[in-house]
Amino acid sequence: MFSLNSQGISEIRQQMLKFAQLQLHDPDLAEDVVQEALASAYKNANSFRGKSALKTWIFAILKHKIIDLIQSRKRTITLSEMGDEIDPECFFDQTGHWAVNEIKEWQDVEQITYQKEFWAIFDLCLNKLSGQQARVFMMKEYLELPREQICNECGISATNLNVMLYRARLQLHACLARNWFEGEV
What we know:
Oligomer: single chain
Helix content: 55-70%
Order of helices and strands: HHHHHHHH
Number of helices: 8
Structural class: mainly alpha
Mean pLDDT: 78
Largest sheet: none
Radius of gyration: 18 Å
Strand content: under 5%
Number of strands: 0
Shape: globular
């Protein structure tokens, strides 16, 4: 079983709420799904083995709760529904997904700190995207929703989705190039 002080859980809860609001565009639904995820984490605390960070484990629960909610919203109607030198595509494979092989290079123990710093900077860069760009990017890359479902959920065409994903990747690339690879903060 895990233990976390109230300040720690409060910080994680705020981050969860921010993420859920970005995906759901409804503060009430976001609050509900965060509460469900936290309740599920508490209920299943003895299944937490410590193989990942507690925050990662709780966010995985949240991710699945959000996916379930998005998929169920298709079937029901809720009340609330009434850098120039680096190739911009170097972080992505031919299908537009993160190039996992690039991240696997960081498995050296000395690089763990750098990984954490990288993801902190990535999070800052992600927060600089427009709300809709960040939303579709996270739906595609983190929630791994199919393109058709993202288009339906966001009310956009497939072409618009492709443009938004491309622009999000370019902006993330430029931000990472400035703040991580060149070291300018």
